[in-house]
Design a protein that fits this description.
The complex is a heterodimer of chains A (232) and B (119). By secondary structure, chain A is an alpha/beta fold. Chain A is 34% helix and 27% strand. The radius of gyration of chain A is 18 Å and the shape is globular. Chain B has two domains: 70 residues, Arc Repressor Mutant, subunit A (Orthogonal Bundle); 31 residues, no CATH class. In chain B, strands 1-2 form a two-stranded antiparallel ribbon. The chains are: A alpha/beta (232), B mainly alpha (119).
Chain lengths: 232, 119
């Protein structure tokens, strides 16, 4: 089955506010997809629904044929927009926790990436800088052998050199059976790595195309088009 | 191997062009093995699917060939790659003259500017 993620007429309302309005989309396997939209456009709401943290008001969402739940959690590796890890824990203790939690966790890969990014595994999370904390979170998420990686703002808080490392980690981890869905504002840094982009605005999908289609049709980068589409 | 990619143009044709240039210039020799799709993707910072698509397009034109289980190689015949680069040079030259014409220069004046710039 090539459809990894499928949304049908997905709607989420918080009281009178509609965060997602009748969203239908399909994400196949083997793709790196950017979920782009201004603040408050519904990116995180969509991501939370697909991780089972929110339930849709109406419509449906399936991952590999299942609605979000215990089965899908074993297939989805999720980087939330804020850290949920206990800050008193040492990095190595958190790695151990992930090893216990996820059968698909590749401990050797996690330690290799920690070493590459110069992070001492014996450090407590609270003593690390904001950027280094983000790196630890991303390493944990990318070390799983998942089918869908969902990264909510993975590159926002890190320096440009680390951004490049993260981008090459995503490329190196590429696997034709798995897909990566990432949300970001920093489009120009990442657009070359994306197969497809989804523009979302006020809970509605405005555009869902490949990066090369956008460049071909508009003669501009995805970043430029984004600025044009979402101009105030 | 360095890659210069223009963000306003689709990536796939740019990768094809640059591989052709490297073949035409002799940087890539006939029957030389190319880097793997993943290696090129990491080096250029682009999507592996885009690299794969570029390689397939070059293969369809006979510029490179694949060996199952081994990778991608430069074709023994480099004529097609050279033709592609020739075409690219001509179209860039036409663009250049078009832009200079738009600035109000006639062809003779453009040639003078080119000569001056070279000196």
């Amino acid at each position: 089955m090539s459809e990894l993620l499928k949304c049908d007429n997905l709607t989420k309302s918080y009281g009178r506010i509609t965060a997602l309005n009748d969203v239908s989309l399909v994400i196949p396997r083997g793709k790196i997809i950017g979920l782009l939209g201004p603040n408050g456009s519904g990116k995180t709401t969509l991501i939370k629904i697909l991780n089972g943290l929110l339930t849709p008001t109406s419509g449906s969402l399936t991952i590999d044929g299942d609605t979000p739940g215990a089965t899908t959690k074993s297939k989805v590796s999720y980087l939330p927009d804020s850290s949920y890890l206990n800050s008193w824990m040492r990095v190595e203790q958190i790695v151990k926790m992930f090893v216990d939690f996820y059968p698909d966790f590749r401990e050797d890969l996690a330690y290799k990436m920690l070493k590459n990014l110069d992070i001492d595994p014996s450090m407590k999370l609270k003593t690390l800088s904001k950027g280094n904390k983000e790196k630890v979170c991303l390493i944990l998420v990318m070390s799983r052998n998942a089918q869908l990686y969902v990264l909510d703002e993975p590159i926002a808080g890190v320096d440009p050199a680390t951004r490049d490392y993260i981008i090459s980690t995503i490329i190196n981890n590429y696997n034709p059976e798995a897909s990566v869905l990432l949300s970001t504002h920093l489009i120009s840094d990442i657009e070359q790595v994306l197969d497809e982009v989804i523009f979302i605005d006020k809970g509605v999908i405005k555009l869902h195309k490949t990066v090369d289609e956008i460049r071909e049709e508009n003669g501009m980068s995805v970043d430029e088009l984004f600025r044009e589409v979402f101009r105030w | 191997m360095s890659w210069k990619l223009d963000k306003t143009r689709p990536i796939c044709p740019q990768m094809c062009e640059q591989i052709c240039v490297k073949i035409a210039s002799g940087e890539f020799e006939p029957n030389q093995r190319l880097m793997s799709v993943r290696e090129v993707a990491v080096a250029a910072g682009v999507n592996p699917n885009t690299v794969q698509k570029s390689f397939e397009q070059l293969e369809a034109k006979g510029i490179i060939y694949s060996v199952r289980g081994s990778g991608w190689y430069v074709s023994a015949q480099t004529e097609t790659a050279k033709d592609a680069v020739e075409k690219l040079i001509k179209s860039k030259t036409a663009d250049f003259f078009g832009q200079m014409n738009a600035l109000g220069l006639d062809d003779g004046q453009i040639k003078n500017y080119v000569k001056e710039w070279k000196e």
